[in-house]
Amino acid sequence: LTALPWPARAVEPTADQLIVAFTGGVTPAGTGVTLDLPEVAENGFSVPVSLAAPGATEILLLAPENPWPQLARFRFGPLSGRQAVSTRIRLARTQEVIALARLADGNLARTSTWVEVIVGGCGA
Amino acid sequence: MASNVTPRLRLPKTAAKGEVIEIRTLISHPMESGLRKDAQGRTIPRGIINRLVVTFNDQPVIDVDLGPGISANPYFAFHAMVPGAGEFLFSWFDDDGSVYEERRQIEVT
Q: Which stretches make up the Sulphur oxidation protein SoxZ domain (chain B) (predicted)?
């Protein structure tokens, strides 16, 4: 997890590259992850989001149209209690936000939600 | 470098053994994305909280990688199972190398 110094990262991975890195190219089989976002976000600088994937070991949250598509990656430990998390994100423009989860049995789950952004979170 | 970085936590002081509790965290931080420009048109360098790690008695609860797309003053609400009395450790990692740590004891009723 030692990240390169920021200027050394010449090219940010695209959402598609991040998805392949997470899934190993396997198409997520089914449901098992939920993503709760407003349909319309007045302010793209701070959009509330809730995620849940019972039993999951990790969740990847992506905004493909943001300058940096990876919003966050959550790894749940043995004491996570419930594999659910809420946070606030920046959305640069109207887009489909994607969540991918690695479930307890190793299977993958995917969901996405379309969010209309009125004022983009520029600098996201 | 971000100034006045202050972590805030909300979690119960006591729990039943095996109870799942909700924890809310917020850390005041600008989450400078590296895309904004200052008044002179110079790009403001990226400076974000890039990771939050929460453990209880050294056992992992949640480990979050944050990107620049997490809003300023990163907020997270999540859950933890309390297997017995002990201590939560919250560690936020800043791009500038700073680590902000908070500890909370929890008693089992």
A: 10-102
